[in-house]
Amino acid sequence: xxxTGDSAVADTSGEDRLRRWRMVLGGxxxxxxxxxxxxxxxxxTALSALYGRGGGRGEGGQRSAGLGGSAPHVARWLGDxxxxxxxxxxxxxxxxxxxxxxxxxxLLEPEMLEAVEPDVHLVGTLLSLNxxxxxxxxxxxxxxxxKVVEQLEQRLxxxxxxxxxxxxxxxxxxxxxxxADIDWARTIRANLRNYLPEHRxxxxxxxxxxxxxxxxxxxxxxxxIDQSGSMAASVVHASVFGxxxxxxxxxxxxxxxxxxxxxxxxxxxxxxxxxxFGTQLGGGTDINRALAYxxxxxxxxxxxxxxxxSDLYEGGIRNEMLGRVAAMKASGVEFVTLLALSDEGAPAxxxxxxxxxxxxxxxxxxxxxxxxxxxxxxxxxxxxxxVP
Length: 388
Fold this sequence. Notes:
single chain; 388 residues
C-alpha cells in the first residue's frame, strides 16, 4: 500500500512539473505532451496574447492574432489577467503590453483606464500622454493617478514625518535637556576627564541633549526634479514626498521640475496629483539652468538642503553646472544627488558627471522610496549620507 501511494504521489508530482513546463514554454509542440484545460488553458491564452510569437489562440489550438489595437479585446484581456494573476504580476504584464505592443494610445480611452491595475509605471505613461489626453479621459486619468498617490502616501508619509521630525529635534542642541532628551554619547565624550576608575563611571558635570524643534521654519528643502522620460517613476515619488515635506511646519519646501525649461510647482504642493499633471515628461535636459533657478531661491544656505534628482545627462553647460554645485556647498548648502528615486535601482546615467559631483562632496546614487527619509534626515543633521 505504501509503495502504491508513493508511486501515485510521484506520478502527480511529475504531471505537475510537465504542466508547469508547458505553461513556461507556451507551445503545443514543446515536447511535454501536456494538454492544458480549464483555468490553465485560460491563463495560457492570456500569456500567449502578450508573449506568444503571434499572440493568442485561434481554432484548433493554433496561435492567432495577439492583442492588436482593439480596445474591447484589450479590455477583456486586462480583465482576464486580473482574474488569473496577482496584482504584482498584472502590473508587470500591463507594462510589457504597453512597451511590446504599443498600446499606450489605447490608454486615452476611459473604458481602458477603468480596466487597468494602477501602479507607478502606469502613472508615468499617463503623464507622458497628458498633452494628448482628451477631456473625456482626463478625469478618469486623474482618478487613476490619485489612487496610486494615495497608496504611496499611506506607505511613506508617516515614517517620513517621524524620521524628519526626529532629525529636526536632534539638530537643536541644548545644555539643559530633560532626562529623555539627553544625548548620552556626546555627554560621555564631553565628560571623559571626570572618569572615576575606582567606580568605573563618568561624573557628568555637563549634560548635552537634544532640543525640541520649534514650530517655526528650521530648514528649507528644494527638490529639483529632472522630468525627462526616463525619470517618470522618480517624478511620481518625488511629488508625493514633496507634498509630505510641505505638510511639515518646520520645513519650507520648494519643488522645481525641469527639462530645457524650469517650472516651479511649489504652489501646487498641497495636492501631488496637481503637481504630477503640471509636469511634462520627455524632452531635453538643462541641469545648469535648473540649478541656477534653485540657487536664486536660497536665502539661508546653512539651513538649506538641495536635492537634485536626475540621471545627469546634461544638455546645458557642464562646467557651470558643477561650479554652481561647488558654490552652493561652499556657502553651507547640503547638496544631495539622486540618480533615481524609485524601487528599480540606478538607471543608465552619466558616469562622468556622477564622478565629478562625488569629487565635490556630493556623491550621486540611486535611492529607494523607503530609504529617502533616512537620506533626508542625514542631510538635515549634516551627517554622512547613508549611500547604499
